[in-house]
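User: Quick sanity check before I run a bigger batch. Here is a single chain. Can you write out its predicted 3D structure?
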Amino acid sequence: MNALATSLQIYFTTFAHTQRDLSVNTIASYRDTWRMLLKYLSETLRIRADALDFDVVTALNVTGFLDHLEHDRGNSAKTRNTRLTAIRAVLGRALPEHPEHAATIVQVLAIPPRRTTRPLIEFLTPVETDALLAAPDQQTWTGRRDHALLAITIQTGLRISEICSLTFEDINLGTGAHIACTGKGRRQRITPLTKSTVTTMKRYLTERANHPGTALFCGPHGLPLSRDALEHRLAKHLIAAESTCPSFSAKHVTMHTLRHTTAMNLLIAGVDVAVIALWLGHSDTHSTDAYLHADLAMKQAAIDRTRPPGITAGTYQPEPDILAWLTSL
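Assistant: Done. Predicted structure follows.
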């Protein structure tokens, strides 16, 4: 076993679990990155995977791998940077133990991340929200389950991973109704539930008791729904909702869009950004500030406040004579 193989084995079997105590998702992401990197190097350099060592994990080869992800696999710049982080994590751990490869490793660690553009946040309007909630066929158990799932997601803003991990023990529908979850960065939080959501969940849980398992939202055999299953169910209901709300055709709606919808509903209601950050489980308000740029009504209100006294707020309308003169030019 060469030095690279030894370092990988130590990192993923010992260091990541016992010393760093990384989450299962983080370890899986790092593992998949190195699996793709080793496969890329083996095919590109025509070297068996078990013969690859630190001398081939150069800055040039790693950059080629990142370009391969972006250009050939169609990954975004954000995904590219995530893969680079995984490569850095393992190499940073291996550097003190293999000083003979220090120059090669340091060059890889010095690869800068790709600058990314932050897209505008997409969210659902109240009309679109109502259309989506009405889309599931509530004559069936799966339809009633999906309605409850969409209702609690839009009201609480839970991440898709948090929805998948919910169990019976995480929800309290009594006094002070709330739902508890452990989110990103292992931050635990409790989110209150509205009366309408409590009513919906009570109806759902009455039927849910007839199915096995402890997952709050489960499949026919009691197993928790996967991320792919949730996105598949959402896509199905979006098709149904589009017939009554055509604006869906111009939007790319995912489960995370429902989380954005929660944040925008709170922001429009006048809730402070710091409170929204706590509601969504953000570590600070930096991520939450993006929602301030998404609401045009708030920006229009800001413009109206800057008008001089005595001028009525509104959109400028030219005089008919001036408009006719400009048209004749």
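The longest helix spans residues 24-45.

User: Great, the batch can go ahead then.
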